[in-house]
Amino acid sequence: MDQIVPHASHWGFFDAVVRDGVFVEARPFARDPMPARLVAATPATVHSATRVDQPYIRKGWLQGRRAGHARGGDPFVPVSWDRVTRILAEEVAQTRAEHGDNAIFGGSYGWASAGRFHHAKTQLQRYLALGGGFTNSVNAYSYATAQALLPHVLGDVEVLLGRMTDWSAIARHARFMLCLGGLAEKNGQVTSGAAAQTYVPNMRAAAEAGVRFVNVSPFRGDTMEAIGAEWVPIRPGTDTALLLAMIRHIMDRGLEDRGFLATHVTGWDRFAATLGGRTPEWAEGITGIPAATIRRLAEECAGQPTMLTAAWSLQRADHGEQPYWTLVALASALGSIGKPGQGVGFGYGSSGGIGNPRRALPSVSMTATPNPVRDFIPVGRITELLENPGGTMAYNGLNLALPEIRIVWWAGGNPFHHHQDLNRLLRAWSRAETVVVQEPWWTGVARHADIVLPATTTLERNDIASTSRDRFVRAMHRAIAPLGQARNDHDILADLADASGFRDRFTEQRDEGAWLRFLYGRWVSACAKFGFEAPDFESFWAEGHVEMPLPAHGEEYTQFAEFRADPEASPLDTPSGKVEIFSEAIAAMGLPDCPGTPSWIPPRESLLTAAPDELHLLSFQPATRLHSQLDPGPIAAADKIQGREPILLCAEDARARGLAEGQVVRVWNGRGACLAGLRIIEGLTPAVALMATGAWFDPLEPGVPGSLCVHGNPNVLTADVGTSRMGQGPSAQSCLVRVEPWREALPPVRAHVPPPIEETV
Ligand SMILES: Nc1nc2c(c(=O)[nH]1)N[C@H]1C(S)=C(S)[C@@H](COP(=O)(O)OP(=O)(O)OC[C@H]3O[C@@H](n4cnc5c(=O)[nH]c(N)nc54)[C@H](O)[C@@H]3O)O[C@H]1N2
Ligand SMILES: Nc1nc2c(c(=O)[nH]1)N[C@H]1C(S)=C(S)[C@@H](COP(=O)(O)OP(=O)(O)OC[C@H]3O[C@@H](n4cnc5c(=O)[nH]c(N)nc54)[C@H](O)[C@@H]3O)O[C@H]1N2
Ligand SMILES: [Mo]
After folding, report:
1. In a domain? residue 47
2. Range of the domain at 690
3. Does the keyword Ribonucleoprotein apply (predicted)?
């Protein structure tokens, strides 16, 4: 008899069907209005041959080839849990004693799993914090630049992370929505912490209510046909120029909201004084958008209730601060901030759950543990940290000291997927004495580790999925026994804590069941303060989910409404209490790459300076995966071309290079090269190439920096440069490449085959 249990993932809720101990099918959750298709890839991925079956140590590490030796090329040696726990606990103790607690890098950025208790990074950081501390990273890859910038401009990052102006407000009050980077349908399948799929229904409802959408993007496919958006093609990385010219035109026509600028905005005149040459004709030369279209868009925005949005991708580019700040300046000129369903909001097209109508209720969350070590880097600056021990790094007005890192530890993230310029990372990675990775699968980062600890997947343990962006809290029942010798991250770390004498502080003497009851119970109490009475744990667990109430009909939410109504009584948390279009704090940093007002600064790499045969590569989020997760599954496999990640070009660019649909090509620049399968599409700005992230890194010669990635990980091509010395965000989207036919024999893809194993040293 099949057993069916409730479960969840970042890519959607599902019911897990188990037959004879095997997870055979993921059925959509009955209450999901539009079940995500990615859940179907979960069973094959969980049971894939690329699971790590037991603990391993890199042969070279055991033989003393540690710092100074490239990782990725050696075979792995199987070891017992007892032995690996002992070796690792000793290594940690020795490193802490000889080099200090900050010699351990535990930033461990990554999405890990939807379950909130077993969230790997949270568990790892708890273990490392209680053991004495670790060097951390701050901010999320997704919107790191905006996390640094927006507090200076709008007072806090709630505009990014918190409760956003909801879709019902937009549908009711806005008539026009300008979407930089579109509202990509694929991105809505995913919500951190899991959600029902409301993304497409919300957007459709707004279109049906009469909102007209404009998709300003290099790619027409960034909005779905059903919302009937106008496509305005743009050169990547040039949105700031478009926005400055729109503002300039609004001011030329006297259409700006003088009253709002006077009462709610600071620094407008200083900013306006920089707009002298920023005409629509000037912007046409940069963006490729006709000046007449720029004028029309400006007038459309000024002439009707308008919502402005930008995808997170825009700030994952060189000077990514500028398009976001300039978009806030445009909203200021329109005087729309805080008007019902209008103003500016980021990421409506970047993830499920953004702007999902909901009541202000907390989510179930794991306790964060204070870290005694103060050292940190902005996320994405890992290579510089490893390259430059004892050096400093400018970040948001600070001068960060970079400690010498001896141990790099990752649980629930895959830097050999997510980091830029992987060849440079590979070189810097060899500076560490020891690299520890907890992973269910032989991913890129696991293959470049010294100590590999096999972790369970969510299906092998009990947990709770929850996000503040959705109205369901979902029980995640254990469906199958752990595969091989895999263990829960929590249990791996509890044993390590035990070896160092602090098991009880780590576990607080709770087992899994007690933790889940504790976290759930704490959430129930928090909800009670908001007037929502959640069921007790037993009922929740038996039912499989809790449904939180929706807002009452007509109860819509608009950000900054109170500030708009009374900026004296409800000021923003900026130095002036107003929207800062000149920021004294940023100006005082004295940075040419991020001056005191929103500015056009030509990008480091773009079509403006490209050679005639270069293309601008956008490495966007995959429709067929969550980042590198699910890459071994059937949905990702079906999309590949001769086993390689597709690269999308327009017909004219393919023709110019003598390339045909379906052929394998070599994509390269001065930083690296990968293979890809050519797909020719319509609706793409010429000289732009698109490649999804997430195909597992598969160097032809493992361990050799610069080796060809035969599978198609675009991060061998991207540059690892901070957006500016203010934000220091990742800037993957500013990347030029060349594409040529691959004429040699096709090397096999080995990304999903476990690495060589040697039984003894
Ligand atoms: N070129 C380019 N690069 C990018 C981006 C881009 O746009 N372009 N986008 C960036 C962005 S926004 C992001 S968020 C990052 C994403 O980067 P990551 O979050 O690092 O990517 P994931 O593939 O989700 O990695 C999560 C890892 O956790 C593992 N995992 C899952 N469950 C568990 C568990 O229970 N325990 C343990 N121990 N491990 C588990 C998975 O197997 C996987 O290897 O990529 C960034 N990189
Ligand atoms: N299916 C799926 N969904 C996901 C994820 C996933 O891995 N899979 N990852 C999730 C995560 S962690 C994140 S952070 C979000 C990311 O959300 P986003 O950052 O919004 O996602 P991207 O796909 O990188 O970019 C969206 C679109 O922006 C356009 N674009 C890129 N550069 C420019 C530019 O300079 N100007 C303009 N106007 N447009 C540009 C591209 O055409 C691209 O399709 O997605 C989330 N959603
Ligand atoms: Mo992200």
Report:
1. no
2. 615-741
3. no
Interval between CA 723 and ligand 2 midpoint (Å): 17
Q: What is the CATH number of the domain that holds 390?
A: 3.40.50.740
Is 443 in the same domain as 468? Answer: yes
Residue ranges lining ligand 1, Cβ < 6 Å: 110-113, 118, 120, 141-142, 316, 411-414, 417-418, 438-441, 443, 455, 489, 619-620, 626-629, 693, 714-715, 718, 732
Cα angle 563-568-571, degrees, rounded to a multiple of 5: 45
Q: What is the CATH number of the domain that holds 341?
A: 3.40.228.10
**Taking a C-beta distance cutoff of 8 angstroms, is the pair 369, 126 a contact?**
yes
Query: Which structure tokens are listed for 591?
Result: 């940075």
The mean predicted confidence, pLDDT, of the chain is 97
pLDDT in tens, 378-426: 999 999 999 999 999 999 999 999 999 999 999 999 999 999 999 999 9
Give tens-digit pLDDT for 316-333: 999 999 999 999 999 999
Ligand 1 centroid from CA 97, angstroms: 32
Residue 758 inside a domain? The answer is: no
From 620, 625, 630, 645, mutation site for ligand 2 pocket: most ligand atoms within 8 A of C-beta: 620
Query: For the ranges 157-161, 307-311, 648-652, which has the lowest average pLDDT?
Result: 157-161
- Tell me the H-state helices in 373-511: 382-387, 415-418, 422-429, 444-447, 489-499, 503-507
728: domain CATH number? 2.40.40.20
The answer to whether residue 42 scores a pLDDT higher than 80 is yes
Ligand 1 center from residue 459 Cα (angstroms): 18
Q: How many CA atoms lie within 13 A of 488 on its CB side?
A: 19
**Residues in the chain, how many?**
761
Q: What is the largest CA-CA distance in the chain?
A: 78
